[in-house]
Design brief:
Elements: H1 40-44, H2 47-61, H3 69-91, H4 94-116, H5 127-153, H6 158-181, H7 188-214, H8 216-219, H9 224-250, E1 256-258, E2 265-267, H10 270-277
The chain binds zinc ion (ZN).
Length: 278
């Protein structure tokens, strides 16, 4: 158990969901607004994950280029996080805590695989590339299984969860920084823009998460855990967009990045859009 965590035994409030079985309780008074929702702000702010993922899927599929299944999977995991985290904060039950935390671990693994392997798995890939791609996927699955077992059998070790989640995310981000700085890509500016949005938003999110957990009595009114949800949704979206542009470029697909929007989108070049409309 990490030292700054509020022990759930110190909060006896009970509502619809009964006894708190989660190993965590967050900086928000329980059942303050509803008999059915333990943490109102922390629950409803999770809808941002679902909204961002649905927007990203819609924005892509309404254009010429379809969202590749590997990125669709990541956005579906983001929806799972939103639903799982909503239920966790609403109930403070251990099973829903797992529904929140396990997809968080899986999404980092999917993002890491996407950061490393940038080509489409098809006949243009040579045998050694195919083997490496599948080996990489198999390693991610094994790590995911080990993480699942640790979460199931060692629930008291929240620090292990933080270490696994943070560690994989760090490796993934280092890959992206590397690709954004030394790349000879014609999309270098776009790469930098996306990686900066991803990392700055995540650092801000981590900052508010730390403040919320360490200084809860002084900052409770700011509902900082809700800001963690907003900022990480923004960060994940730009992390995925970065992997997407590397992927599209590696596979010779033309595109433009619309970074002027709140949530960056990837669109076909103007001439392709025009020919679609005609
Ligand atoms: Zn949360």
């Amino acid at each position: 158990m990490v030292p700054w965590r509020v022990s759930n035994t110190s909060l006896p409030a009970q509502g619809y969901w009964g006894k708190i079985t989660a190993t965590l309780d967050w900086c928000e008074p329980n059942y303050q607004h509803s008999y059915y929702i333990a943490e109102t702000w922390n629950s409803f702010s999770n809808l941002v994950y679902v909204a961002v993922a649905l927007y990203a899927i819609w924005a892509h599929n309404s254009k010429v280029t379809k969202l590749h299944p590997r990125f669709l999977l990541v956005y579906l995991l983001l929806i799972a996080i939103g639903i799982g985290s909503f239920l966790f904060h609403a109930s403070l039950l251990r099973e829903y805590q797992l529904f929140d935390e396990l997809p968080m671990l899986y999404i980092t693994l999917a993002a890491l695989h996407g950061s490393i392997f940038t080509k489409i798995f098809d006949n243009r890939m040579c045998l050694s590339e195919k083997i490496l791609f599948l080996l990489g996927a198999a390693i991610m699955v094994v790590i995911g299984l080990v993480e699942t077992l640790i979460q199931l059998y060692y629930p008291e070790h929240y620090d292990w969860f933080l270490l696994m989640f943070g560690g994989i995310l760090l490796v993934c981000d280092l890959f992206q920084i590397y690709r954004s700085t030394i790349s000879q890509s014609k999309y270098k500016k776009e790469r930098r823009n996306l990686v900066v949005k991803n990392i700055v938003a995540f650092l801000l999110a981590f900052g508010v998460w730390l403040i919320d957990n360490n200084l809860c009595p002084y900052v409770e009114v700011l509902k900082l855990h809700s800001w963690w949800h907003f900022l990480t949704a923004y960060s994940v979206h730009h992390n995925i967009k970065f992997s997407e542009i590397v992927f599209l470029e590696a596979n010779g697909i033309d595109f433009v990045v619309r970074s002027d929007k709140l949530l960056a989108t990837i669109e076909p070049p103007a001439e392709k859009l025009k020919s679609k409309e005609q």
